[in-house]
Amino acid sequence: MTVDARPGGSRAAIRPVERPVPLRQSVYDALLELVVEGRLGPGETDLAHQLGVSRQPVREALHRLEAEGWVDLRPNQGAFVHVPTDQEVDELLDVRELLEVETARLAATAATADQLARLREICQRGQAAVQAGDTLWFVAVNSEFHAELAQVAGNAVLAELAGIVGRRVRWYYRLVAPLRGRESCAEHLQMVAALEAGDARGASEIARRHTERTRAAYHRPAR
Question: pTM to 2 decimals?
């Protein structure tokens, strides 16, 4: 067994052997998805049974989720999806807005015809989800649109940060999606039009308004 040498005598780095995702991480990921979708049940035993694992990795995952602010653990009752406070929502949307405005600006200068077609196809699925009254589907498609937009922007660090924030936004957004569905679809189409025109300033402003309207919907008393 040999190791390839680089010019000058240096040795090429050996890529580590890929390993399966640890059970505790798989359980954490599965429970987090249930939280985001609002489908997390309170009982450890039931969750363990549904996931086909023992209670220990479920318990560890729930404590991690509590530490990260996703769930509230109540003595003798179990785990409950955390209901974000108004301040938590505002702080998240402040960060979301910063990322989205910059993402839109960069995307307007980098979008290709294929990428624009992909964004329009996602918009069509978003409209179909709204027309079907399928909130979970629309929330997923909405998240997909913003993730794709981050890829179009062409900045890997920005896309990574947007992904981290986007997962928590998807959790919060589920609460206002029925109010925002049609408006969001229209705003997404406006965004695509701005990208097609190469209008960086216009795209940034659309992104800013898009986030602020979501904030207003969340704070709407009749929600």
Answer: 0.79
